[in-house]
C-alpha cells in the first residue's frame, strides 16, 4: 500500500527526471500553477478528470490506488517539523514570525476582528527582474471572514 507522502515523492521524482514544469501541468489541468502544485504535493484533492489530465501531461500512469489517494481529502500540513528546517520555507516562517503581528494589526485595522481565509484563497508567485538580483513576488489573496457574534 502506497502512502500519500510516497506518492508525492513519486510525482516529484517523475517531474524532475522528465524535466516537467508545474506551470505546464497546471495548464493541462486548467488550474493555476500554485493550486496544481499544492494538489500534487498532497495538500488538495483532485477529481478523476483532473487526475487524468495530470496523467496525460506527466505520463505517470497512476494506479487505481494512486488515483484514490489523489482524490482523498488530505490531512493538510506539509511540514515534517514544527519549525521548518528547509532554508526557503524557514524564511517564509521568519516573515510570519517577524511581520505576523504587523499583518494581523493592519488587517484588523482595515477589516475588523476576523481572519483571512486560506480556503477562499488564491496565491500568485512570480519573478520580478531587478538589476540588483531578481525578486520573488508572492501575492496572497484571501477572503476576509469576520468573527461572528452569537
Structure, explained:
The protein has 150 residues and is an alpha+beta fold. It folds into two domains: 4-71, lambda repressor-like DNA-binding domains (434 Repressor (Amino-terminal Domain), Orthogonal Bundle); 87-146, Cyanate Lyase, Chain: A, domain 2. It is built from six helices and two strands. Strand 1 (114-128) and strand 2 (135-146) form a beta hairpin. Helix 2 (22-29) packs across helix 3 (33-40). It is globular. The mean pLDDT is 96.
Which key terms come to mind for this protein?
434 Repressor (Amino-terminal Domain); two-stranded antiparallel sheet; alpha+beta; Cyanate Lyase, Chain: A, domain 2; 150 residues; globular; single chain
Gyration radius (Cα, Å) is 18 Å
Classify the secondary structure makeup into a structural class. alpha+beta
Level-2 CATH architecture of the largest domain: Orthogonal Bundle
Mean pLDDT: 96
Largest sheet: 2 strands, antiparallel
CATH fold field value of the largest domain: 434 Repressor (Amino-terminal Domain)
Form type: globular
Beta percentage is 15-25%
How many independent structural domains?
2
The percent range for helix content is 40-55%
User: Treating each run of at least 4 consecutive H or I residues as one helix, how many helices?
Assistant: 6
Low-confidence stretches: none
Give the termini separation. Answer: 46 Å
InterPro entries: Cyanase, Cyanate_lyase_C, Cyanate_lyase_C_sf, CYNS_N, Lambda_DNA-bd_dom_sf
GO molecular function: cyanate hydratase activity; DNA binding
Enzyme class: lyase
Catalytic activity: cyanate + hydrogencarbonate + 3 H(+) = NH4(+) + 2 CO2
Amino acid at each position: 500500500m502506497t502512502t500519500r507522502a510516497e506518492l508525492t515523492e513519486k510525482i516529484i521524482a517523475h517531474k524532475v527526471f522528465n524535466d516537467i514544469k508545474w506551470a505546464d501541468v497546471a495548464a493541462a489541468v486548467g488550474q493555476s500553477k500554485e493550486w496544481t502544485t499544492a494538489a500534487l504535493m498532497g495538500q488538495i484533492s483532485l477529481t478523476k478528470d483532473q487526475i487524468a489530465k495530470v496523467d496525460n501531461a506527466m505520463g505517470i500512469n497512476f494506479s487505481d490506488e494512486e488515483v484514490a489517494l489523489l482524490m482523498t481529502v488530505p490531512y493538510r500540513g506539509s511540514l515534517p517539523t514544527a519549525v521548518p528546517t528547509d532554508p526557503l520555507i524557514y524564511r517564509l516562517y521568519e516573515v510570519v514570525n517577524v511581520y505576523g503581528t504587523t499583518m494581523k494589526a493592519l488587517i484588523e485595522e482595515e477589516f475588523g476582528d476576523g481572519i483571512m481565509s486560506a480556503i477562499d484563497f488564491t496565491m500568485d508567485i512570480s519573478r520580478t527582474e531587478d538589476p540588483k538580483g531578481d525578486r520573488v513576488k508572492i501575492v496572497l489573496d484571501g477572503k476576509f471572514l469576520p468573527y461572528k457574534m452569537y
